[in-house]
Amino acid sequence: MSNLLKSLLPCLLATVSLQADQPNVVLIMADDIGTGWFPFHADRLQVNDLEPEILASYAEKRGHLGEVDPIEHIKAARNCMPFLDKLADEGIIFDNCFSTASLCAPSRAGLLTGTFQQEWGAYWNRDVDDYGIPADRVVMAEPLKAAGYTTAMIGKWHVAKKDPTLIEKAWTEELGESLPIPQFYKGRWPELRNILKGSGYQSSSFPGQHPLDRGFDYYYGFNSHDSKYFEAEELWENHERVPPRPPGEFLTDLLSDKATQFIDSAMKEDKPFFLYYAPMTLHGGIVPPPKHYSEKFDTGNRFTDEYAGHMLAMDEGIRQIFAALEANGELENTLFLFTTDNGCTLYDVPPYNAPNRGGKGTGWFGGLNVPLVIWGKSIKQTGITEEIISLADLMPTILDHADVAIPDGISGKSFIPYLTGEEEEGPRDFLNSVSIQSSRWSYYYEGNGENNTRDGIKAPLYAWHFDGTHLFMRVTPTRAGLYESLPDGLPAQVMLYDTSMDRQQRYNVAAKHWDKVEAMDEVMREWLAGLKEPVTSQQDDYHMLLTKVEKEPFIPESGSSGPDKSVR
């Protein structure tokens, strides 16, 4: 338990009465899925909302005879999650929800702590993989548990360091000798790889950073970027490794079953519950799901049908969760939230992150604009809203709804007054973001689709400021030689987009509206100055972003590696 939470416990225990009607909370975070693949967004898509680069890339990689039917792909997206679509119709859909980073680990850290994780120097995956969530940061489950909730984390944790003692123990038991120091690994990598696989290290959690150490009563999942969709070998139940799962067992179905089992178990305790469910859908090496999911789709492209089948499998899990709530008489007393950690990846499956540009690992809207559906009988605001909301806002919103004290020092804002109709507008007029601008995880426009899987540590940083209608964005210089298509690199870039008309960020209007650029830059730099520099890399890039935007910047046309000749 964090020191900050310990200081809150007397207040929490004194002010929160444990009543049977305290609301349950189900929070689901899916993996690597952008807006375009959810029915409540896809219903509003037209073919021209899909990026031509993505259609061309997917046609080249996986197209049938080199072709892709965008209409059939949109149709698949409209039909792949019918149950979630029903909940969205009854609840509220946030069109302007943004993750705190466009990568798995930092995005999840921001969600779970109600902060912009850059405040402690976490900008990309390595910053979290190497350090985890600091002990002085409160994790969402901790105040809920202190207030009498039964809590569970099921699925992908990925916010903790790994436990190195497992390697040492496995090496000694397997080889009968002490683990050599790293410089003596050379020549022994095959042995080390086998040890890593067999020890459980790759999906383990460092002591103090394990879900059970951060407010969760029950844990079934893995602390890694992914697992296997079938016969999973990387799972843990509480502090024990789960034996390899049986042949034919599908991970999404298994995790959904664990979620419903937790609900049934929690109801026997006569206590409110908090379920954080993070399925792996759709991360990592995608393999065909069980046929009864994918056979319902016919896009003319087998991989797309399988992709949609994975979505349908996750939807079936949500339906099962609601069936368990109904069977236990808890539908009226449950707040449900669904989101994802970031946009789609290099699979480039149309409609991808439409109507946005770009994807995972970048500052383009497609990397950070994530779906958010909130459903509950106490929610009065319904329909589609353009209110700006961050995933960092979900923790204070959940705590506020549960009548649990919100810890001091978090940057998230509660949306409960807006959701319950007490206020007509949400608490955010604008949002800022900063992270890496990489080619590793999604289509790289500046390099015409080039993919450097090792650019993370050397990629430039982006930073942006969004006010609801305009997006101001800066990108630090791209190093020479980092990409074959850009041997000389790129200078710093400055961009301004009217997102009310240009969601795909095609038309950079920075040169025409320099006064607005300078004003937005000032607000953004003030926010950046309150963060910590990245803990593992890109420190120089961070300090570049703290300097005032230059009067004569390199203003590129999106999708081009050259200066913009037709700003409008």
UniProtKB/TrEMBL annotation:
One of its GO terms (molecular function) is transferase activity. Keywords: Calcium, Hydrolase, Metal-binding, Transferase. It comes from the Bacteria. SUPFAM superfamilies: Alkaline phosphatase-like. Pfam families: Sulfatase. Residues 23-160, 192-404 form the Sulfatase N-terminal domain. Belongs to the sulfatase family. PANTHER family: ARYLSULFATASE (PTHR42693:SF33), ARYLSULFATASE FAMILY MEMBER (PTHR42693). This is Sulfatase-like hydrolase/transferase. The lineage of its organism: Bacteria, Pseudomonadati, Verrucomicrobiota, Opitutia, Puniceicoccales.
